[in-house]
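Worked example 3. Consider a protein that binds zinc ion.
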Amino acid sequence: MIRTVTGKITPGELGRTLIHEHIICTSPDFQFAFPNWLPREKVVPIAVAKLRYLAEKFQLRTFIDATPISLGRDLGLLREVSEKSGVQIIASSGFYFYPCFTAICVPPETMARFIIDEINVENNGIHMLKCAVDAEGVTPVVRRYLETIALVHNETGLPVYMHTHSGNKTGLAAQEILAEKGVPPEKTVVGHVADCNSCDYALEILQRGCSISVDRINHKNVRNRIELLYRLLQQGFEKRIFVSCDHVCCWDNVMNQISVPNDDVESMGVIWQELFPGTAAKGIDFDIAERVMVQNVAALFE
Ligand SMILES: [Zn+2]
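Given these inputs, the predicted complex is written out as structure tokens:
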């Protein structure tokens, strides 16, 4: 069974699923210090409207919230948005790549114990582990995060989504560490592989037996994403590809009038309106949406 913030479901109940999105992203220290930093009464209606739009227009059933604890994940907020929108939400635990005081002081074994305990709380809805390695690669603190996530995976079996920097191919070294520590490639999803506008990185990851997330898709880059997706499908990797936009429903702009690049939920329609039809038109004869958004996600969680 798969944990969601509103209860357990079977893989067959996932339906169309976006593998990596966010309800909020913010700094937990600002959230903690300033109760009005990202107020729930403003966030909930915005997020609910966006999820309802995706459900009604594109039959989205499940939204995997990739926000780790160090980017302000709020399980109660996710539950409220899920209940009001009718879209199932799977929460994540784990880390972004920024160093944090606790992670520098506390050993991975201790951090892992706390994360395992929160996963086991009924209705927390955590069924994805998050880790991140950015342009700088495996820094000492990123290594501690990876070791922690591997310990949690070894006890829970939960899949791991890894934010990576495609230009520097940083997912390769990080995936080796996860594998050394016991996370099998088939439970590892390497993200943001298409950002460098090249197939090479995605292919190297796929050839290791991991899955990839073709994400951050928008109107400007969709032609490149179509080309990349087509080439990977042509080479027989259709069972290990996921898609998403990496959209953030609300972040620090809500109160602070900061304009953000991906604030527009209608632009997420590019996945259904351009990516899938454009890829199919090049010569793919199966239902790409069904394969990558439904069957592949169900297989990852089985
Ligand atoms: Zn993200």
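Take a moment to read the result before moving on. The chain has a mean pLDDT of 94. The chain has one domain: 2-301.
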